[in-house]
Amino acid sequence: MDKAETRMAIRHAVIAEMQTTDIPDISITSLCARAKVSRSTFYRYYDSVDAVVKQTENELIESLRRTSRFDAAPFAAGDPAPLQVSAGDLLRAEILYEAREFIVAVTGIHGDPSFATKAANLVFDNIQVTLSPRFSALPNSDFLFEFLKAGMFSIVSHWLNRRPDLTPQEMCGVMEEFYANIRKMLS
């Protein structure tokens, strides 16, 4: 195996182990057996199982963060927000779908609870940048943003856990339907 294949084998082994075992309890021996690598090979790439998880999380978050340049420009105060799926939304959906197996494992019962917070904060950042000029003047807008953050995180979680039959494009279509209903409510 080359370096990329070895890293991928180790990551897939960690994902498989997280289905039944908490991250701190995953043994390097069982992980290496599943990945079909030696312990010395594992340690050549990672210091610990937690390091595998954190590196994968950080790479995923950074990939999602880079998509923001494809989002629509923030709306000026008073402008009606079109609330539509952007090219950045589609790219994020594709990244999430590709990383589905990892996301389901890391947000599961044996995963890393801090990842959900990191992911939700990324969603919150996107919501704030896009919608803040329009909604920040509303009373208690902080609650609205928290509601939107939790809702978006739940929608993505539901999609990846329970409806993986929907492609990223189809999921963006679902989001477009939500946005259309929100536009009706706001008009």
From TrEMBL:
A molecular function GO annotation: DNA binding
Pfam families: TetR_C_8
Keywords assigned: DNA-binding
UniProt xrefs under InterPro entries: Homeodomain-like_sf, HTH_TetR, TetR_C_Firmicutes
DNA-binding region: 27-46
Domain HTH tetR-type: 4-64
SUPFAM superfamilies (UniProt xref): Homeodomain-like
Protein name: HTH tetR-type domain-containing protein
The species this protein was found in: [Collinsella] massiliensis
